[in-house]
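User: I'm writing a tutorial on reading structure tokens. Could you give me a worked example: one chain, its sequence, then its tokens, then a sentence or two explaining what the tokens reveal?
Assistant: Sure. Here is the example chain.
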Amino acid sequence: YALADFYVSAGRRDEALELLSRVAAEKDQLAPAKVRIALIHFLGADRRAAHAEVDEVLKVHPGSPSALTLKARLVLADG
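And here are its predicted structure tokens:
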């Protein structure tokens, strides 16, 4: 996650997304990795992709605090 954060801060968004996608393939890392992917999409003004990533997490982990929090922020940002 630190490397992905570094990539984002360095403007290397695509590399961060690729890394996090690989991490999300690990069963126990799906929620945290996908939430970060969604956040990157949101910060890049791609709200549709952000919603899709969060919704995917919520299908598998409906009680995920981080996914629910980000979903609330997305809905609030959408008005």
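What the tokens reveal: The two ends are 30 Å apart (CA to CA). Helices lie at 2-9, 13-24, 30-43, 47-60, 65-78.
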